[in-house]
Amino acid sequence: MMTSHEIRRHFLDFFRSKQHLIVASAPLVAKNDPTLMFNNSGMAQFKDFFLGNGTPPSKRVADTQKCLRVSGKHNDLEDVGFDTYHHTMFEMLGNWSFGDYFKKEAITWAWELLTEVYKLPKDRLYVSVFQGDSTDNVPFDQEAFDLWKPIVGEDRIIYGNKKDNFWEMGDTGPCGPCSEIHVDLRSPEEVAEKPGKDLVNADHPQVVEIWNLVFMQFNRKADGSLEPLPARHVDTGMGFERLCMAIQQKRSNYDTDVFSGTIHVIEELSGRKYEAGTGMADVAMRVIADHIRAVSFAIADGLVPSNAKAGYVIRRILRRAIRYGYSYLNLTEPFMTKLVPTLAMQFADVFPELNAQRDFVATVIREEEISFLRTLGTGLGRLDQIISDLGEKGTKEIPGETVFELNDTFGFPADLTALIAREKGLTIDETGFQKALQEQKARLGKMQPHRQVTGSNWPKPTGLSLLATTSQKPMRIL
Ligand code: SER
Fold first, then answer.
1. Residue to substitute in 214, 220, 243 for testing ligand 1 pocket (most ligand atoms within 8 angstroms of CB)
2. What's the pLDDT at 33?
C-alpha cells in the first residue's frame, strides 16, 4: 500500500517532471492579507500573482499547503469529528500556472496523475464543469466540457452551479469557474444499488470531491462585480487526506496513516480502543486527532492561544478538543500536549517547523490545558445545572448573560457552550451574549485611563508571545 509520504512525494515529483518549481507551504496564519485570517487554500499565498501585483518565482509552481478552514467563507469546524472527511487543518496539494498553461494541461495532467500514477479506477471517477451563471454573466464552461468528454465520456460529467463550480477565495479576490474530480469509494454492492453520479455533491462520506481545478479569470470586487484578470491562470487544490483515503482504500480519512499514529497515542492515553464508529468516544478521538494538528501547526507558525482574533480561534479549537477528551474519554489531565512529539516526527520532513519547535509548542499547549482544566469541571457542572433549570421552565435557549458568565468565569468560549447546548437539544442567545460582551468592554474601557498608543510605546510582547513572533519570510523553494 502506498504510504501518505509516498503519495505526497509522487504528487510533487509528478509536477516537477512537468517543469513546476516546488515551493514550501506558506504559514497557516495569513500574513499581509486583511481579507483572510488563515490560509484557507493553496492559492492564498499566490493571490498577488493572480491579480498581477507581483512576479512569481516561476510560471509553474506546485506544493503542499497547510490550510485551515475555521472562519470566514470556508468554515468546516462544526462537521469535524462527526463526519469522516472534514478537517480544521488539512493539506492541499496544488499546482499553479501563472499566465502559462490553462485548461487543457490542467485537466490532462490531473487525469494522468490520478489514473496512471495513483492508479485510481477510472470507473469510480466523476468530473464536474461549470454550468454558467446569468447573474454574473459567466457562460457554461464549454471548453472544460470538450476537454473532459473524450477522457471520461459524457455520462461521467456533472453540470455544477455557482455554489459548487465557481471558486472564490473570499468575498473579494481572484475567482473563476472550476472543474472538480470526485471519487466513489463505496463497495461494489453499494455501487450496484445506486450510481455514484447521483451521489456527487450530496454529502455522502464515500463519494467525495478530491481535486478542484480552478480556472482563474476574474477578480470579485467589493461591489460584487467581476473584473477580468490581466491574464488567465490555473489554481488546483487536492485534499491530501481524502486522496490518501481513496488510494489506501479506507472508508475514512481517520483510517489512513495520516491520522493512525495520533489515534494510537490517544488510545494509549485514554485506555480505550478507537472503533471508527459514531459513538461520542470515537467522535472525541477524531476531534482530538484533528484539532491537535491545527493547534500545533498554528503555534509553530507563530500564533499563541489568546483572547483576540486568530489567537482566539486557536484557543477555541484547543478548548473544544480538551472538553471532548474530558467529557467522553475521561481525560482529566493535560493530554493534548502529549500528542505533539508524534505529530512533529510524522511531519519532520514535510513541515519541519513543528519538529524544530516541538518543546515550545508542547509547553504552550500544556499551559493552556492546565489553565482550562482548572475551571472546566466546575463550569460543566454549572452548565448542567443551568440546562436542568431551563428544562424545568420549558425553555430551549440559554440566555446571553449566562453564556457570558460561562465565558468570563470558566473560560468557555461561546461556541463551546453552543456545542454542549446542541448536544442537549438547546441553543444559545448569541445576540444577548455579544451584548453582554460589549457592555463588559465598555465598563472596562471606562475604568482604564485613555492612553494614546503609537508605534514606539506599543507594549512589547512578553514571555511566550515574544518567543512565538515570526516575521513574514520570503517564499522557500524546495
Ligand atoms: N482554490 C481552490 C480550492 O481551494 C483550488 O485550489 O479548492
1. 214
2. 79
